[in-house]
Amino acid sequence: MSLLIVVPACTKAGEPANGVSTAQHTAAMAVTSSSPSPTPIANPKIRAAGESEFGKLEIRSRVQENVEQLGAPSCYGTAVDYKISGTYNVQFTDKANTVTELAISSLAGFIQPRNETLPLQKLAFPGHDIFVITPNYKDCHGISFYLVDVSEEGAFLLQFLTPEGKSDQYDFLPKTELKVEQGLLKVQHGGGAGNETVIEQHFKPDFAKHVMEIVS
After folding, report:
1. pTM of this structure
2. Within 13 Å and on the Cβ side, how many CA atoms surround 66?
């Protein structure tokens, strides 16, 4: 379930009101290490961000993030990639400077090659922009992602509606990308362990119900 809270917008001292800057907004974060005096890894206050004609979307942690390197290669990344964990809110600020916060309970961390603000992919639909949140940039079989719809109506987490039910997240195959064609979201899906079949799936948005419904 997603939680929707609308609160007055505010600008913290030193933060720009019309953009995202990682150079001036860093903080020393905790690092897991066997060293008695580990060197802190500087971390942006904004973990991910994207811009739309309707406003800006930012992902921030409500608590201090923990940042560490993976240390060994795996399906999820190389040894020097960053594993980042926190308690995250998705925050949308519209053109009227009203802030909407979306709580995604299953979004607990990121694995990324760089410890910096992650640019969010944006998919365009008539009257709507959909931001794609991909916490992990790699996987052996399926890369999980979330979708946040923004429009003049505000910001909403979209659920995926399939014959198996509803879910806040879905996945696409590594080395493929999400595309919008003829008003449908095209996803390359499948290829899991023991089943190498790749399926091209199409989702139709129902923005009034805040869902992406599979249609083929």
Report:
1. 0.77
2. 9
Cβ-in-10-Å burial (0-12, 13-18, 19+) of 168 comes to middle
Q: Are 31 and 11 in contact (CB under 8 A)?
A: no
What is the length of the chain? 216
Q: Is 174 helix (H, G, I), strand (E, B) or coil?
A: coil
Q: Count CB neighbours of 140 within 10 A.
A: 12
State the Cα–Cα distance between residues 87 and 205, nearest whole angstrom: 28
Which pLDDT tens digits describe the chain residue by residue (216 residues)? 444 444 444 444 444 444 433 334 333 334 443 333 344 455 678 999 999 999 999 999 989 999 999 999 999 999 999 999 999 999 999 999 999 999 888 999 999 999 999 999 999 999 999 999 999 999 988 999 999 999 999 999 999 999 999 999 999 999 899 999 999 999 998 765 555 677 899 999 999 999 999 998
CA–CA gap between residue 159 and residue 135 (Å, rounded): 17
CA dihedral 86, 210, 200, 187 (to 10 degrees): -40
